[in-house]
Design goal:
373 residues, 8-stranded antiparallel beta sheet, 10 helices, 13 strands
């Protein structure tokens, strides 16, 4: 799935498992930025937000440099923390805190607005959609096997944190830059330092692009995702980065071969042209552009093609990210569009805050096949 179950560690505690991350200009209020973090795959009405971690959003300005979009050092961050659920209680309380000192206290399950910041946290219908079993068949067989068109997360719920805030102060902090990077994290703090549990930028980097450990001799059989989850998006470890690069080169080459053609020739060192773009794992947004659906990867593609981008980029709730990513990896969008046949979530997104939809409240659904095996 997008980032559901993205490593053994987070599978042991669903409350710290980030399933998805979205970032987009507000379709309701021009001049506002929306950030959405989903956690707790297959949540039920009894699911609670973890009270021991910070749910963190991080933004940094971007500049083109040496063929890459490089994040600057200045950062705007938002932490959302939750109280314990007291015995006999029915709701959690929460606090939003920004790196510039703003605070909003709110109750889970209730949309709150204070000083221009809107926040909601609670159970919602999972906005992700994908035929996970079809992706696994493709990965194992080496042949495009998207012939079932079954949404694996149909009628599932997740816990959602949705934040909307004016982005003018963020651009001011970034010296007027409108091109920004965004990432979501779960972390605990020890001795004043954050210990990252998981991070998510683009969807499917860990569960599709990096997951298979059998194609790269250098990292054969090694589960890299837990290590990768703990990395700082903006400062990958120089010790482990070569392993991530080697795994990504091998798996990206696999996807390129799925149509029996080569859209992405490797260089003399075996480097895949998309490796550095996807390794810098954050959503890319242009805050100077208005809201429009379908912007996922558009800025990255434009940069790779050396043309001006046309959209705000980022990721809208209804963007068909699997089709976009798969087609780019397989044929560089210079051929037919590939996909899994699943084109919409259980409930399409709203154009009004908090943009996610009411939960399905289904507790009778069986485990997906890939979890049962």
């Amino acid at each position: 799935m997008s980032d559901h179950f993205s490593g053994p560690m987070v599978m042991g505690d669903p409350a710290v498992d980030i399933t998805d991350f979205y970032a987009f200009p507000s379709p309701e209020r021009a001049g506002n930025l929306v950030l959405v973090m989903d956690v707790f795959p297959m949540a039920t009405a009894q699911a609670c937000f973890s009270d021991i971690i910070a749910h963190r959003f991080r933004l940094r300005p971007l500049e083109p440099s040496d063929g890459r979009l490089v994040a600057g050092a200045v950062e705007y961050a938002i932490d959302v923390t939750f109280s314990d659920l007291q015995q006999g209680g029915s709701a959690q309380s929460a606090r939003l805190a920004t790196s510039c000192g703003r605070r909003v206290d709110f109750a889970v399950g209730t949309a709150t607005e204070q000083d221009g910041i809107r926040v909601f946290a609670g159970l919602a219908s999972d906005p992700f959609f994908m035929d996970v079993e079809a992706a696994l068949r493709t990965d194992m067989s080496g042949k495009l096997s998207f012939d079932t068109a079954t949404n694996t997360v149909e009628l599932r719920d997740v816990l959602v944190i949705a934040i909307e805030l004016p982005y003018a102060p963020i651009r001011d902090l970034f010296g007027g830059a409108s091109l920004v990077s965004a990432v979501a994290e779960t972390a605990v703090t020890r001795s004043g330092k954050p210990m990252r549990i998981e991070r998510v930028g683009r969807p499917e980097i860990k569960n599709v692009v990096m997951a298979n450990p059998t194609r790269d001799p250098r990292t054969f059989g090694i589960e890299l995702r837990d290590i990768y989850n703990r990395e700082d998006t903006f400062a990958l470890s120089p010790v482990y980065r070569p392993l991530y690069e080697s795994r990504m080169d091998a798996n990206l080459a696999f996807f390129d071969r799925l149509d029996d053609a080569c859209a992405w020739p490797l260089d003399a060192n075996g480097r895949h042209p998309l490796r550095d773009v996807l390794m810098d794992d954050f959503l890319v947004l242009d805050l100077a552009k208005p809201f429009a659906p379908g912007g996922f990867l558009e800025i990255e593609r434009a940069f790779a093609e050396q043309r001006p981008h046309a959209t705000a980029g980022g990721r809208w709730l209804d963007d068909d990210i699997l089709d976009e990513l798969l087609t780019w990896m397989v044929n560089a969008r210079r051929g037919p569009r590939f996909g899994d046949g699943v084109d919409a979530p259980t409930k399409p997104a709203s154009l009004r805050f908090p943009y996610v939809r009411d939960p399905n409240h289904r507790s009778d659904l069986p485990l997906p096949a890939f979890l049962r095996t």
